[in-house]
Structure formats: C-alpha cells, structure tokens
Write a structure and sequence with these properties.
Length: 227
C-alpha cells in the first residue's frame, strides 16, 4: 500500500493511466460560448467555485456581450451584477480595466499570447493558460490550481510549493501531450475523492502508489502535516 513508483516519470504514467480510465470525459467545468466569456469566467473563478461562477455568468453574459460592454460599465453596477462571487468588488475593477485594454490594444478581441493575456488586469499565468488552452487551442503549460497543487504534492509528483515552480517542475515529467488533461484529471479526482481535509483513501484508484495514503503513511505530503 502507498508505495510510489521508482521515478517521477513512472509515477506520472501510473497516475495518468488510472485517472484517464476513472474520468474519461473530464473537461473544464466553466460555462462559456466564446473567448471573452471564457476569460471573464476564469477571472471570476479565482478563489470561487465554478458552480457559483456558472450561476452568476448565466445572466451576466446576457448583459455584457462585448469587451466594450465591460469597458463602459459602471464599476459599482458591475460589482452588483457579480455579487456572490468572492471579492466581487475587486473583480468588477478587473473586468472594467480588462475591457478597456482589450478595446484599446486588441480591437476588442481576446489575445492569444501568454504575455498579452498576463498584461490584462486580474490575469495571471494560471488564468492565461486556461484561456490559451480552451479559447485558442494553444497549450503552453500546465494549469496549477488548488487541486493540482494539492494532488501533485500528495502523490509525490513534485515537492515544489508555489504554483509557478510546481508548473515548471511538472512540465519536466508530464508528457506535453497530456498537459491540458492532466489538470482536468487531477481536478476531477480532487473533487470526487482526494479532497483537502478528508481524502477517501479507501476508494482511491491511486491509493497503492500514493506516498500520502492515510492507510499507510502518517504525513500528508501536500501540507507536510500529520494526518
């Protein structure tokens, strides 16, 4: 029980094979119909559940349909329109500023480069990676959200701690062809089985190769703390 493979590359192979089988249809859970909607949804999803974002954007996307709509929005009104989203006041400011930049520098279109995306308000590398992958079919890296950070450390795939360092480390051991799905697989498994506080190790398809298994180990490698 709980014995990882001899190398990180072998561990990644086992993790991918089993999670592909367990979650064959996993994909992004945010609802969107175009690149702008994707960008807005991902910005809103920071420290907020995708479920809540989808509830809010159902009406938001009817009212704000172009970059100009966000650029010209009253920030207080926009904050009310996204009320219920974590840090809704800050994110309203991000969206209006983002809309202005899209209009002034990109003819209202969502750019397709990492540098241009990360120049937008509220957009870091994680957000940019999502937009590139699902909006432009460009895969430049691995999206490291809270689930990917937790599971990649818990499974012994990386010992790095920050999202940026974790991403670089994982890109060296995860096959490039799997970069996009790697994120979705770990998110699905994190939500269904391997949650932060009380993972269901008894029901986990990776338990026998997990160096953090509660059935066989005393420490959660994700946090470095005892179970």
């Amino acid at each position: 029980m709980g014995t990882p493979r001899d190398s990180r590359e072998e561990q990644v192979t086992v993790v991918l094979d089993r999670l592909y089988e367990a979650y064959p249809d996993t994909t992004i859970s945010l609802n969107f119909s175009n690149r702008l909607e994707l960008l807005v949804a991902v910005v809103l999803s920071a420290q907020c559940t995708d479920e809540r974002v989808n509830d809010v954007t159902e009406t938001l996307f009817e009212k704000y349909q172009t970059a100009e709509d966000y650029a010209n929005a009253d920030e207080a009104e926009l904050a009310d329109d996204i009320y219920g989203i974590t840090f809704h006041n800050n994110k309203a400011g991000y969206l209006t500023s983002m809309g202005e930049t899209l209009v002034e520098e990109h003819d209202g279109e969502v750019p397709d480069t990492m540098s241009a995306l990360t120049d937008l308000s509220g957009v870091g590398r994680k957000t940019a990676n999502v937009v590139l992958q699902h909006g432009h079919d460009v895969v430049e890296g691995i999206v490291v959200d809270t689930h990917v950070r937790r599971l990649s450390r818990r499974l012994g795939l990386t010992a790095e701690e920050t999202p940026e360092k974790i991403e670089r480390d994982l890109m060296g051991v995860v096959p490039e062809s799997d970069w996009q799905q790697f994120t979705h697989l770990l998110i699905s498994h994190g939500r269904a089985v391997c949650d932060a506080r009380n993972p269901s190790c008894d029901d986990c398809v990776l338990e026998d190769v997990c160096p953090s298994s509660k059935l066989d180990h005393d420490v959660d490698l994700a946090s470095g703390e005892a179970w």
